[in-house]
Structures are given as structure tokens and as C-alpha cells.
Amino acid sequence: MKLGGIAGFVVRRLLLGLLVLGLVSIVVFAATQALPGDPARSILGRTATPASLKALRDQLGLGGSVLSQYFSWIGGLLHGDAGNSLAAQEPVTDLLGDKVVNSAFLVFCSGIISIPISVAIGSYAALRRDRTFDVSTSIATLVFAALPEFVVGVSLVVIFATTVFTGFLPAITIISPGARPWNDMTAMILPTATLVLAVTPYVVRIMRASMIEVLESDYVEMARLKGLPERTVIVRHALPNALGPTFQVIAINLAYLAGGVIVVEYVFNYAGIGGALRDAVSTQDLPVVQALAMLIAAVYVVLNLLADVATIIVTPRLRTRL
């Protein structure tokens, strides 16, 4: 493995990621500017006078040209300042700080459970191809992949919190102000299980397909002809090469969790970025909407970069090209 080659690849991907974020910032800003309504009127109400509306727009920085507003906003982001919430009248970073931590912990719990399970199930299904385990897991993953998150979440609530096993688990996740979600892990079970069931089917299916392709490859057959134990063939030759394409799907699904967690948070009344984004859209709190959109975009870029690096590390054929 050439360290310089990987370092150069990372630098190129970082520059490409910054370019993508720059383009995303333009789209996000243009989209929020195109939203109907007037944030100043939403704050002051319908009885506001034209003079008070103009004064508030100037105070909020909404009175200048679109270009001046964009460069002011993007310059603040580069300095760690996402502006002030129009509705709460406090810095966006302070408003979203705890909510981002809560959502990040939920995504972390879901990822650390779903990824190993998905890899293990997909690999074993490939080894037991067309047998009972493979067929049953294929049907199960198809069913869960077809179900929206809110259906899975509501079903879990009905089964484990309300109708079937009444009170067995909390139906909603209540996080007191200043508290952290890991202080009550019992309340994290249902939202975490919902996200695990939402993303696991996709990773299982791609891991199974990738593992089958690798097991049928020439180099795996050669390793078997050399007399290597089957376990060694699978662990040292098949599994690392099968993980490459799977890392890409894992990254996409983890990035999807960063945005898809919004629905799950609404179902379980979870105090995360989902509720903050919903409230910001309803009150036309543009700085909050813009900050959350850029945060989700940054998560996509970072996770895809990590997936590319992990793919190179575990795939010998790619390492030799750098």
C-alpha cells in the first residue's frame, strides 16, 4: 500500500467534497429564498406595519440583495457562525446543539447495530445460497425494504408499547432539557430498532450479492485449489473483497439515516433535528433550515469519503493502483 497514493486520493476527494458542498450551498440558499411567505411577517404577525416589517428585515439582514445575503451567510458558515434563528432569536448553533447530539447518538446506535448484523447475515446467506436460511432472509429483507419507516415504527409501538405487550417499552422517547439520550437507554430501543430494520435489508442484499460474486471468482477458486482451509479462504480472500461494494451502500444508508431520522423522530417524539427542521419550515426560520440542510449534505460527503478510503484499504486490487 502506498501511503502517498492514499493521501493524494484523500486530498482529491476532500477538494471534490468542498466543491460539492459549495454547489449544495447555492442550491439550499436559492431554495430557501424561493419559499413562499415573508419571515418578518411570520414573526410580527398580520397586523405588522410596513415600517416595522422593513425595520425587522434590516435587523435580520433580509433587506440586502440576494447575493449579499448569500455571501454573508456562507462567510458566517466558514467561520462557524450559522446566524441567528428568526423565530427563537438565538444563535442557530446554540438552538441546534443538543438536538444534533441527540440525532447523532440515535444514528450511531442504529449504525453500530445494523452494520455488523447486515454483514454477518449477508455473508452467511451467500454461503448458504438457495437454502432455507438464504430464501427466508431474502423474503424478510424484501418485506422490510418495502415498508416505510413510520409503518415499522408504529408497528413496533403497537406490539411492544401499547396493544400486545402493554407498557413493555416506552412508546415515546422523552429527553428532558439538558439531559442526554444515553441517560435512558430503554427509551432508545424502539427508535433504534426502527432505523435498524429500515437500513439492514439494503446492506444485507448487497453484501449477499457481492459475496456470491467473490466466491465465484478465479482467485477464490485458486485459493481453494491450493488447499487452504475454507475458513481461511472466506476470511482472508472472499470477505475483504466483498466488503468493498458493501461499504458504499453502508455509507449511503448511514447518510440516509441523517436525513431519514426525521420521520422516526416525529413518530417517537424524539428531540432531534427532525423536530427542529419541521418547526423551522413551519415558521419560515430560514437560518435553521439552511444550517440543517448543509449539515446533512456534509454528513453525506464525509461518509462517502470514509467509504471510499475503507474500500481501498480492504480491496487489494484497488490498493495496487494508487
What distance lies between the first and last C-alpha atoms, to the nearest angstrom?
8 Å
Shape: globular
List the secondary-structure elements in sequence, H or E. Answer: HHHHHHHHHHHHH
The total tally of domains equals: 1
Instruction: Note poorly predicted spans.
Output: none
Structural class: mainly alpha
Mean pLDDT equals: 81
Largest sheet: none
Strand content: under 5%
Question: Measured on Cα atoms, how large is the radius of gyration?
Answer: 24 Å
Number of helices: 13
Query: At the fourth CATH level, what is the homologous superfamily?
Result: MetI-like
Query: What is the correct CATH architecture?
Result: Orthogonal Bundle
CATH class: Mainly Alpha
Helix content: over 70%
Number of strands: 0
CATH topology term: MetI-like fold
Describe the structure concisely.
The chain has 13 helices and no strands.
3D architecture notes:
- The structure is a single chain.
- By secondary structure, the chain is mainly α.
- The protein has one domain: MetI-like (MetI-like fold, Orthogonal Bundle), CATH 1.10.3720.10.
- The chain is 75% helix and 0% strand.
- It is built from 13 helices and no strands.
- The chain has helices spanning 3-33, 39-44, 50-60, 66-78, 92-127, 132-146, 149-162, 189-215, 218-225, 230-267, 273-282, 286-314, 316-319.
- The longest helix has 38 residues, at 230-267.
- The chain is globular, with a radius of gyration of 24 Å.
Q: Descriptors for this entry?
A:
single chain; mainly alpha; MetI-like fold; 13 helices; 75% helix
